[in-house]
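Deliverable D5.2: sample structural annotation.
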Amino acid sequence: MREDLFPDRLSKRLGALSIISRSRRLGHHKGTHRSSKTGTSLDFSDFREYHPGDDLRHIDWNVFARTDKPFIKQFLDEQEMRVHILLDSTKSMGTDGKWDFARQLAIGLGHIALKSGDTVSFSTWSTSRNYFFRKKGALHRASFSKYVSQLQEPVAEGEFADQVVKHVPKAMTVLFIITDGLEQLDKWERLFRRLPGVCKDIRILTVHSPVEELPAYEGDVRFVDVENGSVIEVSMNQRIVKEYKEKKMKHEAELTALARKYGIQILRTEVSEGVMDSFTKKMRHAGWLR
C-alpha cells in the first residue's frame, strides 16, 4: 500500500488543467464543459425568434427596439463530463515500477476531472474481485487517491484486452485506458473494433519502463513470462538486444496504427520521465488537456 503515491504537491502542480473532449455525450448535470446545446450559462451563444411560452427575461429589448420583433438570447449550456479510467492489472504491470507509475496516472486524471466537477469512475480487477469507484466533485479527490493507492500488486490472470469491455460503464464521455500494451496485436484489434460502440472518445496511455526499453542483461539468461510462466533461455549479446528492440518498436508502431484505424487516440508514457511530464507536456501537446 502506498498512501503517499500522489502527494498534495503533485496534485497542486496539475494547476488549472482540464480534460478536453469533442464528444457530444455529456452528463445530465451541471458542470464546466461546453455542450453543443444551449442552456443557462452566462456565455452568449446566439439569437432566435421569440415563441409563446419562452422566458420573457431572455428577450433582448435592444434588438426589439431596432427590429420591432422579439428575439430570445440563447446561452451556451455547461455540463459535466463522465470520465472513466480503466487500469490494466495483469502481472506484467507489476514489473520495473510500472504499477506505481500507472496508478499515479490514474490518480492525476481523476483529480483533474473531479476538480472540474465531472463524474469520475475507475475500474480494475484481480483474480478474486472487481474494483469500482464512482464519485463527482473536487471533495472526493482524497478518497479517490486513497482508493487507487491501496490497490494491491497486479495479479490478474487472462488477457487484459479480452476483459476490457465488461469493466467499462455505459454512456461515458471519455474513456482512459492505462496499460503496457504488451498483448498480441490480434487481441488489441478485436478490442478496438468493439470500443467505439462503447465510447466515442477513447484514449490509451501505454506505460514503458527503462528495463523494457534497453535490457541490461549479459551472458546466459533465463527469462520467465510473468503472465503465463513460460520459460526461455537466451544468450544475451548485442545482436539479441538489437533484435529485441526492433521487435518492440515494430509492436508499438503497429499498435498505434491499429488504434488510429479505429479512431482511438494513443499516447506513450515512460516511467523514467516522471508522471508530471505526462500531464503537463505530453497530454497537453496531444490536445487531451488544456
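Annotation notes: Residues 25 and 173 are 5 Å apart (CA to CA). The two ends are 32 Å apart (CA to CA).
The annotation will be released with the project's public dataset once the embargo ends.
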